[in-house]
TrEMBL record:
<dbReference type="Pfam" id="PF01712">
    <property type="entry name" value="dNK"/>
</dbReference>
<keyword id="KW-0808">Transferase</keyword>
<dbReference type="GO" id="GO:0005739">
    <property type="term" value="C:mitochondrion"/>
</dbReference>
<dbReference type="GO" id="GO:0019136">
    <property type="term" value="F:deoxynucleoside kinase activity"/>
</dbReference>
<dbReference type="InterPro" id="IPR031314">
    <property type="entry name" value="DNK_dom"/>
</dbReference>
<feature type="domain" description="Deoxynucleoside kinase">
    <location>
        <begin position="52"/>
        <end position="175"/>
    </location>
</feature>
<dbReference type="InterPro" id="IPR050566">
    <property type="entry name" value="Deoxyribonucleoside_kinase"/>
</dbReference>
<protein>
    <submittedName>
        <fullName>Thymidine kinase 2</fullName>
    </submittedName>
</protein>
<dbReference type="InterPro" id="IPR027417">
    <property type="entry name" value="P-loop_NTPase"/>
</dbReference>
<keyword id="KW-0418">Kinase</keyword>
């Protein structure tokens, strides 16, 4: 069952967490998941959970990832930026920013492939936390390029087929959680996808207010770490507060 958690989102400063729990590895059914013990149980320590941290540029993703990198239950995987900067000796990221319209299709196609590889990477901890998912790469960034006229209709159609095929062949383990004008456009794409359901949502969504100061954010992460990592299910009263 899909559940959407919204935590006082302010425009352009939201962090979205998509939380996946592999039921087969946990040995749990849906009702069991909703009644997990508050402590970190043996099953949780042996869990296979993926948390995708989505958000706009400058929304605070790096702060969240840095905080959870210290957690022994978590292995963090950042965006494969260095991989984008050296493809056959060429810097695709630099080419893309130099001429978006010329290189958008090539860059986004390779981004889908490299992000899918991150999804498939094994992890030695119960929780794998990744910076952005293959879904936001397509539903937000690629979609924004197409709607902005920086990717042709034919390129968008081909890229859509590529995205749909690769995600079906190697389904990411997510079980359903710049310039100002670019930031606004990307925020709108995230809102359309994660809050309004314009595109399929592969996991329950929790939205965290990114307008808090650093101390408040770190306190929030500390107090709610097991919820954010999918090791505990949000209590009904907190779900109601988050939905406001």
């Amino acid at each position: 069952m899909l559940q959407h958690f919204r935590w006082n989102l302010e425009k352009c400063l939201g962090i979205w967490c998509l939380i996946e729990r592999c039921r087969t590895m946990l040995g749990l059914n849906h009702s069991d998941q909703l009644n997990l013990d508050c402590s970190v149980t043996r099953k949780q320590k042996n869990a296979n959970i993926t948390v995708a941290v989505e958000g706009n540029i400058g929304s605070g993703k790096s702060t969240l990832l840095k905080f959870f990198r210290k957690n022994p239950l978590v292995q963090v995987f950042e965006e494969p930026v260095t991989e984008w900067q050296n493809v056959g000796g060429k810097n695709l990221l630099d080419l893309f920013y130099t001429d978006c319209q010329r290189w958008s299709y090539l860059f986004e196609s390779y981004a889908v492939l490299s992000l899918m590889k991150v999804h498939q990477k094994p992890h030695i901890t119960p929780v794998k936390m990744i910076e952005r998912s293959v879904y936001s790469g397509f539903y937000c960034f690629e979609q924004n390029l197409f709607e902005s006229g920086l990717m042709s209709r034919a390129e968008h159609a081909v890229h859509s087929k590529w995205f749909n095929w690769i995600t079906k062949q190697q389904k990411p383990q997510l079980d359903l959680i710049s310039a100002p004008d670019l930031l606004v456009a990307l925020h709108r794409q995230h809102e359309e996808w994660l809050m309004k359901g314009k595109f399929p949502i592969p996991a329950p969504v929790m939205v965290i207010d990114g307008n808090r100061n650093l101390e408040e954010m770190l306190t929030f992460y500390q107090d709610n770490d097991q919820y954010l990592l999918g090791l505990k299910t949000w209590p009904p009263q907190l779900q109601q507060q988050a939905a406001c």
